[in-house]
């Protein structure tokens, strides 16, 4: 399937693992409407655009549906707390024990154990934040966080940054 990079980027913004990095429903709707009203000029050579433009009825249908509001829907973006979700199979927790055994100081911690997160700097691989961690004994510890942009292919450069 030929999916334009613009759409892929938008999907990644919607699916970001950090809730505060996700775009709001309003931003998503605004982006989609902007693309719609630009008559798909954003990605004119895409197969998807060609298929959509063949059916003239879909344009008016999309415009009508985009403006309708469901009276029972909640349109406010908010953090939903799902404490009972299983860990992903490729969870960073699997790396925790090997790092500790090698004498490193990197440790996986739950997002919910952090408070007072504050942006510090931006690097080549992600952003740096400081936060307060409430550890298992209830003691507050100041920590540095590295929020990664793309963590699938971590290189030696990343660890040295």
* Average of per-residue pLDDT values: 69
Count of alpha/pi helices: 6
Tally of domains: 2
Output the radius of gyration.
21 Å
- Strand fraction: 15-25%
Major sheet details: 3 strands, antiparallel
Distance between the termini: 37 Å
The helix/strand order is HHHHHEEEH
Q: Give the number of DSSP strands.
A: 3
Describe the structure.
By secondary structure, this protein is an alpha+beta fold. The chain has helices spanning 5-14, 25-37, 47-54, 56-67, 93-101, 156-160; strands at 114-122, 126-134, 140-148. It has a three-stranded antiparallel beta sheet, with no helix packed on it. A hairpin with a 3-residue loop joins strand 1 and strand 2. This is 8778_t:CDS:1. InterPro entries: Kinase-like_dom_sf.
Describe the structure in brief.
This protein is α+β, with helices and mostly antiparallel strands.
